[in-house]
Specification:
single chain; alpha/beta; Rossmann fold; six-stranded mixed sheet; 9 helices; 6 strands; 15% strand; globular; disordered N terminus; CDPS; CDPS_sf; aminoacyltransferase activity; acyltransferase
């Protein structure tokens, strides 16, 4: 499935046959959005929102919070005051883009929240405890560190390489995301959901592999979702 009538062309890549079945059930989708990521323009967000409300019955938009966004800048070596100032600016800019996207898509009531709003819930803590078990395991921990390293290197000079300490700092963002990878279904209180991001990585795909030691919770899926419309740059 990569197109619905009346929407721009959208590429959809489920991480497994199970993820495809959950998406086909049309119950719910959890859209992850990262402030500071240039992919998430207002035009792409509007196109994604239009596609999502046609593809499933209910949609949630989850935005990285201040701690997560600042962690990326801190891990790239920015001073703390600069990292938080830049993170606040990114979050403010993303909130404005989301408002424009909802208005453009005709979806002013679309639910948008930040990760921090869910961090105190029992199901978030359950997902986080499970994710931390995976992080401590040699099957998964190195995958997450490698994925965090790659994310930190994006938009940095070609010869820049994060230190182990910088990767540790970047893991704040990665770790806080994982409950919505493995247990958005429980956190949001839905029967089934697919969590969606613009690009899957080996550390997110891992939880949906048949032979993985740690698997996403029942009813939880994951897809890559990218808009391919020339006007959405």
């Amino acid at each position: 499935m990569n197109h619905l009538a009346g929407t721009p062309l959208v590429d959809v890549e489920p991480c497994s046959a199970r993820c495809a079945r959950i998406l086909a059930g049309r119950e719910h989708i959890t859209l992850l959005v990262s402030p500071g990521n240039p992919y998430f323009s207002a035009a792409r967000l509007a196109a994604t929102f239009r596609w999502a409300v046609q593809a499933v019955k209910r949609v949630d938009v989850l935005v990285s919070d201040l701690e997560m966004t600042a962690a990326t800048y801190l891990a790239r070596g920015r001073p703390e005051h600069h990292a938080y100032r830049r993170a606040r600016a990114d979050i403010s800019q993303m909130a404005a883009r989301i408002r424009r996207a909802r208005d453009t898509a005709g979806l002013p009531g679309l639910r948008v929240s930040e990760f921090a709003e869910w961090a105190g819930t029992a199901e978030y803590r359950r997902g986080l405890a499970y994710a931390r078990q995976a992080i401590a395991d040699p099957d998964y921990g190195p995958l997450l560190r490698a994925g965090t390293r790659d994310a930190l290197m994006a938009r940095m000079p070609q010869d820049w390489e994060p230190t182990p300490r910088q990767i540790d700092i970047g893991l704040v963002h990665s770790e806080k995301t994982l409950p919505f990878i493995v247990n958005a279904v429980g956190i949001l209180g839905v029967s089934e959901t697919v969590t969606a991001y613009s690009r899957p990585t080996p550390d997110t795909r891992y939880f949906f592999l048949d032979g993985a030691k740690f698997r996403a919770f029942p009813g939880q899926g994951y897809i890559a979702l990218r808009v391919r419309e020339p006007g959405c740059a």
